[in-house]
Amino acid sequence: MLKKTIILFIAILSFFAGFSQEKFNLNVITTSKDDQKVLTKFHLKKTYQTIIDAKKELNNLLFELYKSGYITSTIDTISEDTTSISASLFIGSRYYITNLKLGKEAVKIASDINFKEKFYKNKPANYNEILNIAQKILIECENNGYPFADVKLDSINIDSSKVSAIINLKKNNKINIDSVIVKGTSKITKRYLNSYLSIKPGELYNESDIISISNKINQIPFLSEIKKPEVIFTKDKANVYLYLNKKKASMFNGIIGVVPNDRTTGKLLITGELKLKLLSAFNAGELIDFDWKSISKGTQELNINFAFPYLFSTPFGIDYKFNLFKKDTSYLTLNNNIGILYLFSALTHIKAYAEIQSSSLIKANGLENATVLPPYADISSTLYGIEGFHENLNYRLNPTKGFYIKISGAAGLKKIKRNDKINQVLYDSIQLTTNQFKFGTDDGVFVPLARKHTILFSFKGGYILNQNLFINELYKIGGLKTLRGFDEESIYASLFSILLIEYRFLFERNSYFNIFFNGAYYEKSMHNSFMCDSPYGFGVGVNFETKVGIFSLNYALGSEQGNPILFKNSKIHFGIISYF
Question: Domain 96-170 adopts which CATH fold?
């Protein structure tokens, strides 16, 4: 019985193997020797895997003949059996366009579609190319107020192998945008929508703007599209209906850090951060961002950001950032950054800005007789720069695919102020007014591995170029958002680069488990000293969504200055982000 079963199984396999390897022959018969010469130029295959493949090849052959100017080509008869197909092919003469013109209306937009008559003289007649010109004319009309335009090929004249024709255009009704009407829970202002979508009442109808609506809406974090937009036409007007709901995008974030306190052996230091981000709270697309941190004992930082897009219904907006940093009783730094935005979309902009920074010593007692300048100084600087930003992520809260990039550069003057409580002779050895340059970047790419797996590669870098730098004007790195495994903003640098590699397993839409490694190189170049190091850190974390928000927990270890990894110096960060 087993032997018979095996023999039957082998027979079935042989049958299907033979079936899958069967070839179909294609035999194309031409009506003349001249046609046969033309056919040989197309390198037609003789055999195909299936009969369907052979028939497709015949259709492709016809299209290629048409494109080459053989516009009268036809397949007259087809006969087929189980192993072959025979087709009778007539190719005929090759036709050339000797005169292709645009009609009275169409010629007005010739330059807009890059049409020049000299390009269409004495070249093989190509129906697809003529169709492409007609489509360009229609698209140009649709994007300039004439969505119902008609294009016809008129005055066709065939003389021997020469073809001439005229492409005529009838624009029909001119259409203007009447209004943009929003249906749904969103209360977003029409000023914002009209400017962002480039669809304003009174302007000419533009089909490309209508087509791009859904894609643009998907880029806005505080709006969701219920269904695709609709356009209702009247005699000479168009009303655009948008179906939008408000989406949770504002955020409250509280983070607590537990780290060893180096000053008190065996005790822990609690650090914290409170962040309130209001996004379009007043339905105008504006941003209000408040961020307070208690980094270490006596050290606090405050960041405020206000941005308002589409001023006076233009692509321009304003962006203001304020930073206050107080280092125990050492110094106080204030930074004001005000910029003018030019918005290409909700996720792409360039910004021209001015950055005004001042830093002053809080206590300078006992420095009257100092022999060297202290590491802190009274400083002011004014820099002018430009920033570019673009983001393309498949889901902003927890992406698996896409990238983001931000690059900035600035230049200006820095002044060192004399402090009356410091030995004045020490200032004679340095230049008090100097040029200063500042560059920064923050980039990342998410590479999907599978449906629930992704890897984040990110790079952060900064560089301050000046010959007389002090601690209170350097970058501050370290902590959850820059270099994990180290205290928040504990490392001072004039130049730094940080590479992060993070694997994420997404077990819910807004929840994931992660394993990460980040390594850095930094330089601390000051007026009287220089050092560099390559610290690194690694660890694990988890983010998961709860009823009150997204809870995060990260555990990290780090090493710097060549020191070994010590578990007693591990860093734990946990917090919750609530969206509303």
Answer: Ubiquitin-like (UB roll) (3.10.20)
